[in-house]
Write a structure and sequence with these properties.
Rossmann fold, globular, alpha/beta, five-stranded parallel β-sheet, about 250 residues
């Protein structure tokens, strides 16, 4: 990651120290924030040099943004499939099903979705004849389709919109989930997402789950397509920035 920061003109490597993480986060908040509070798909475009692209892809590989590690336990009390786009819901639900089929015991599977309306563009990714109203409805359907493979009947928690009418962010969503589930003391939780978002969502959500009673929290993600490194570079930089912001808050 430090090579990617240096390639973009950021601060010199300071190691994994509080001051080093904060310095990197401050720089990334300006250089790699292409969303400015908007949704990921609304992020502005940015052209990286070939050396920046190479360094970003290397950083993504080293930090698990391309492929996350497998779960370390053989069973989890609660598996949470984080909701997103139609495609994200499908690949994350499939990852949960694949893990279960390969022997991972998921005692309770819950999808965490929002009331975000499914966009017209997303509808093209839906099976013929299907029309889901919002993210939670879509997540509920794909999880129900995977119930046999999961080995349990999944449920879905829908996070309401904020008082300002926007979709809740990761922190707000996981806080709502924990209030609803009230994880039993000493329970283990596995969050399932896309590898590209796993480090940020771990730094953001693990502490919340632990505060509510969980004793073990992990995040795994579906692999990131790597066919077009130049096209991926912006997403990698954006998620490295998100990870640094979350880690910087813990380090500050």
């Amino acid at each position: 990651m430090w090579r990617a920061i240096a390639a973009g003109g950021g601060p010199a490597e300071q190691g994994v120290t509080s001051s080093g993480v904060v310095a990197a986060a401050n720089w990334a908040a300006v250089a790699w924030d292409f969303r400015a509070g908007s949704e990921r798909w609304q992020a502005r475009t940015h052209q990286f040099s070939s050396s920046e692209v190479e360094a970003l892809v290397d950083a993504a590989s080293a930090t698990g943004l391309l492929r996350s590690a497998l779960p370390t336990r053989n069973q989890y009390d609660i598996a949470v499939v984080l909701g997103g786009s139609v495609t994200a819901n499908r690949v994350r639900s499939q990852l949960a099903a694949d893990l279960a089929v390969n022997g991972l015991l998921l005692k309770h599977v819950v999808g965490l979705g929002s009331q975000r309306r499914i966009s017209a563009e997303e509808c093209s990714a839906l099976p013929t004849g299907e029309r889901d109203l919002d993210e939670s409805a879509n997540l509920a359907r794909v999880l129900a389709d995977a119930a046999d493979a999961l080995g349990v009947e999944p449920s879905v928690v829908t996070v309401p919109q904020t008082s300002r009418g926007r979709r809740p962010d990761t922190r707000e969503s996981i806080e709502h989930l924990c209030k609803v589930l009230d994880p039993p003391s000493n329970s283990s939780m596995l969050f399932i997402t896309n590898a590209l978002y796993a480090p940020y969502q771990y730094f953001t959500g693990a502490g919340i789950a632990l505060e509510y009673g969980a004793c073990w929290v992990e995040v795994v993600g579906a692999p990131t397509p790597t066919a077009d490194p130049s096209r991926m570079a912006r997403g990698i930089a954006q998620e490295l920035n998100a990870t640094l912001q979350a880690a910087g808050q813990l380090a500050a």
